Amino acid sequence: MHNTGTNREKGLVKVPEGINAGNQEGSNLVSIHDRILELKNEIETKFIKLGAYLKLVNDKKLYKEKGYDTFNEYIAMPELSFQRSTAYAIIGVYEDFIESKLSETLDIRGISYYKLDRIRQFKSESIEVMQEWVGKAKALSLSDLNAEIREVKGEPEITRDNIPEKKVYPVVCPKCGKKFEFII
To answer: Which pTM does this prediction carry?
Structure first.
């Protein structure tokens, strides 16, 4: 493919001009960061739309038109390759925040679908409680939000030392020979 002037093409992914991991001369971190935030918000909006479409395919059994017997087979098809838990989380966020109209009361803009999935377990609480969780989802990192949820639910903090039934496997890197432990 030839250069169109605004994008370079690598495979089927269009890469903006001037983007090169090794060439950051003249880069403006503020504008790059702003673009990253803009793209992140676009992605989160698309996850909500994806939830609506996945729900439609599941509810109306539209996967049968593609030759699949179940929704789980459909989402596992090579073109989609969704993990079951991810697909159902995206659908759940759509159902609990958009379809239920909870998003008309709560400002969920800018919150990742994953954080929304984590806080939707509190949807049966009062609207004030949900507003508090939405605020936490906006202000906290994902790991801090998860810690807050564990604390509220009375679950212990997950650390390297209290992972249930952890198994330690010695591993040697085949390239450099360095030894390390792999913990499952």
So the answer is: 0.71
